[in-house]
Design brief:
Elements lengths: L33 H13 L27 H21 L4 E3 L9 E5 L4 E12 L3 E6 L7 E8 L2 E6 L5 E4 L4 H14 L20 E3 H6 L1 H5 L11
Antiparallel strand pairs: 1-2, 2-3, 3-6, 4-5, 5-8, 6-7
Helix pairs in contact: 1-2
Length: 236
């Protein structure tokens, strides 16, 4: 049984108008309902209390997340808006943040909120269908484990399918590294996996720590960036 007490009632039905460019690339397309930002504003006005993000140690981060069966369900709609509210607040307060999974606000559903610079969009029941054989290393951060960076190795590119905000199944194929690494992080959350679970250990020596503080990274950014192949680019 899901623990759903953290979510508020529905703020209204979803309008069915969808806009996107001809491209199906996740970055060049604006995969958003034009009404989503307005619904989010109304939701925030009606429920001004900020949405708390679960921190490491919270049991919701380790639970198995259940598939969304009915996107039109009032609870699911409200959960979606709460998730986007949490992401919007985090971006506003911190100047970065591209995605958040529902378990990070205490809702164990397979749902991810994204903002890749074009506005909010939702991935419902996402699945990875392909991993590239090429790998990259990077310093990975997490809203639920603040002030910590973890060295990770991830596939350089992935393909996924998911249900969009209109309830239509979509496919994103052979995504670029920036969204591929992000989605691998968020989809680990859906399986109860945190970035600290499997840090990447260099074969060269033990001198390079796999888990570091954000403060130390900022103090010696060039030194730490030289240890990895890829660095995250903010969308704000």
């Amino acid at each position: 049984m899901l623990n759903l007490h953290r979510c508020l009632p529905s703020s209204g039905s979803i309008q069915k108008l969808l806009f996107r460019s001809e491209s199906t690339n996740a970055y060049s397309s604006k995969w958003v309902l034009p009404s989503l930002s307005e619904d989010l504003k109304k939701f925030t006005s009606t429920y001004p209390r900020p949405v708390s993000i679960c921190l490491i140690g919270d049991q919701h981060l380790r639970r198995k997340n259940e598939s969304v069966l009915n996107l039109q369900d009032g609870f699911v709609q409200a959960a979606r808006l709460r998730l986007h509210r949490a992401l919007a607040d985090f971006r506003s307060q911190n100047g970065f943040g591209r995605g958040i999974s529902a378990c990070q606000i205490g809702i164990n559903l397979r749902m991810i909120a994204l903002n890749l610079g074009h506005g909010p969009l939702t991935l419902i029941n996402p699945e990875i269908t392909w991993f590239s054989p090429e790998k990259i290393t990077m310093w990975d951060d997490c809203m639920s484990i603040p002030h910590i960076l973890v060295k990770k190795q991830r596939a350089k590119s992935i393909s996924i399918n998911f249900i969009d905000d209109q309830g239509v199944k979509q496919n994103w194929n052979k995504l670029d590294v920036s969204i591929s690494e992000l989605l691998q992080h968020e989809m680990d959350h859906l399986d109860g996996i945190l970035n600290i679970d499997k840090p990447y250990q260099d074969n060269q020596s033990n001198e390079n720590e796999a888990i570091i503080s954000m403060a130390e990274y900022q103090r010696k950014k060039q030194y730490f960036d030289q240890q990895v192949d890829y660095t995250i680019v903010p969308t704000i």
